[in-house]
């Protein structure tokens, strides 16, 4: 069992840290939000007042933060974790960020003799709670091998996509596709409703037909179809529109670097930016359904 510093206890980080505690690790936690730290302490974590405090005595650091600037500041900023971590500490960042930031942190870590793995996740808050996340890693073989057993305490599928930053590129490809599927599923469900179909019945039909996809199986965007989905809970919790808009921005940036054509991704980016601009940023990303909903 390891002593792990876990930093970033939001919608994803909190359940992930909880699974590490349940697996028997000693988990030192920090978040800028004191309430989040307090909630984890009640579940057996050791609460810390600063990120550096959390890292003291930890063999592994895991971060789950909103975006690249947070990750760069935390690891590379003045008094950053790379300077504070003891020799041999394994650094794992599970946030979804731009590959350039992941590579910059990896290079900074290497200069300090530390191993850094970018390990963004797929599976949402339900996967984080159930410990069934997919981890998509970038970094050296040695870093991946060291990270894998710990990631297995929080996930079911663990992939090594390639060198530093590769995990982020793979994750961005996945999320661009997810946004397109969510929008396509929303417009198809509303089209059926407009013609008097019951969205539950239509969902069952499409789930086992050629239009079947993850959003229909696990994350139906139409309220009332799937009681456990954010759509049936006022689009609360889950994966924020702001974060999807961020990921799509990263996808467009990544596509621009290689002049790759991503027309569906570009349209999804515009729609999510529009939706975020209408005050939906903190809501779950399946709320894009409301752009089509006439009820
Ligand atoms: P969130 O906003 O709920 O949580 C982020 C947490 O980081 C917050 O509690 C915030 O206070 C904390 N934080 C920010 N800066 C910090 C700092 N310097 N030190 C300590 N704590 C800090 O976000 P989330 O939904 O948990 O997502 C986290 C990451 O995971 C994002 O990159 C997101 O794109 C990715 N992700 C989210 C989901 C999802 O379904 N929510 C799924 C896959 C990937």
From TrEMBL:
Pathway-wise, it operates in: Amino-acid degradation; L-valine degradation
Please report the stretch or stretches of sequence annotated as the 6-phosphogluconate dehydrogenase NADP-binding domain: 3-162
Record PROSITE patterns: 3_HYDROXYISOBUT_DH (PS00895)
Q: Which Pfam families match?
A: NAD_binding_11, NAD_binding_2
Under catalytic activity, the entry for this protein gives:
3-hydroxy-2-methylpropanoate + NAD(+) = 2-methyl-3-oxopropanoate + NADH + H(+)
UniProt EC number? 1.1.1.31
| Keyword set includes Cytoplasm | no
Instruction: Read off the InterPro entries from this record.
Output: 3-OH-isobutyrate_DH-rel_CS, 6-PGluconate_DH-like_C_sf, 6PGD_dom2, 6PGDH_NADP-bd, HIBADH, HIBADH-like_NADP-bd, HIBADH-related, NAD(P)-bd_dom_sf
Any idea where the 3-hydroxyisobutyrate dehydrogenase-like NAD-binding domain is? 165-289
Q: Which UniProt keywords apply?
A: Branched-chain amino acid catabolism, NAD, Oxidoreductase
Q: What class of enzyme is it?
A: oxidoreductase
Give the active-site positions: 171
Q: Known Gene3D superfamilies for this protein?
A: N-(1-d-carboxylethyl)-l-norvaline Dehydrogenase, domain 2, NAD(P)-binding Rossmann-like Domain
Biological process terms from the Gene Ontology for this record are:
L-valine catabolic process
- In Swiss-Prot or TrEMBL terms, this protein is called 3-hydroxyisobutyrate dehydrogenase
Q: Which organism is it from?
A: Ferrimonas marina
